Amino acid sequence: MSHTAHIPSHRKPRRNAAKAAVRAGVTGGVLSAIAVAGAALPANAAETPVETTATMPIITTGLAATSSTATALSADATQQAAEELQQQAQQDAAAQSAAKDAKKAKDVADAKAKAEAKKKAEAAAKKKAAAEERASRSSARTTLSASTASSSSSSSSSSTATGSAASIVSFVKSHVGDAYVMGGTGSNSWDCSGLVQAAYAAIGVDLPRVSQDQSTSGTQVSLSNLQPGDILYWGSAGSAYHVAIYVGGGNFVGAQNSSTGVVERPLDYDQPTGAVRVL
To answer: Which of 20, 130, 229, 243 could be bridged to 168 by S-S, CB 3.0 to 4.6 A?
Structure first.
């Protein structure tokens, strides 16, 4: 008795005959197809095998297009930046020019304003000086009117020239009607100080030549206490601009101007501002 007779077999049971036949048919068909294909190849096909190498296509078109686009964009950006810089430079230059023009216009306006202010100040100063001069003359006129009334009741000796004063009065009255000439000192043409100087020279008294000095050549006297022969002046003592001789009776004789020449006039015709007494 075999030792394996009762041991069951572990092999799988064989497939059935039909399946085996199918497999055999398929295998045979494949082998037949291979044989037919081999018979159709050229005789040397078995000796020279052909190797086929697959070549990968090189993609360049897309890269070139991308590079061209990037270059174009870069150029456009550069041009745009340059245009913006140029525009900004033009704007800055225009702003600077406008600022300079504005400053120049302001300087001109300031200069005109200063000149106008100076002109107005000078005009105001002249107006004030003229007003003060008129006020001074008005005050003197009032004083003189009072002194004239007082003189009417005073003794006749105060209005009647005697001695040297009479000679001075006679001299100036004798030249009434002579011409007025700036710088004139006689014998028939005078200016105001030339006539006064000549009148005192006739009695041997040497006076200064000009009005300013003649207005301080004697003792200052009040217009309410005038005597014939006193020197009248217009302006202030030391800076007088006109002089004449008081001849009594409320009148004076003087070389007034080129229109009137040497004339005798009452004091209220042109009120003097002061007087000096030399005799």
So the answer is: 229
Count each helix (H run) and each strand (E run) in the chain, helices first. 5, 8
In a domain, 73, yes or no: no
Q: Is position 193 within any domain?
A: yes
Instruction: Identify the domain containing residue 272 by its residue range.
Output: 137-277
CA distance linking residue 240 with residue 192, whole number of Å: 11
| pTM score, whole prediction | 0.46
CA–CA dist 114, 108 (Å, integer): 10
Gap between the Cα atoms of 82 and 89, Å rounded:
10
Structural domains in the chain (count) = 1
For the chain, strand residue ranges (E) read: 179-180, 189-190, 219-221, 231-234, 242-248, 251-257, 261-266, 274-277
Is the per-residue pLDDT at 67 higher than 50?
yes
- Identify whether the C-beta of residue 190 lies closer than 8 Å to the C-beta of residue 198: yes
- Output the domain CATH number for residue 144: 3.90.1720.10
Bridging pattern class, strands 179-180 and 189-190: parallel
The whole-number pLDDT of residue 62 equals: 56
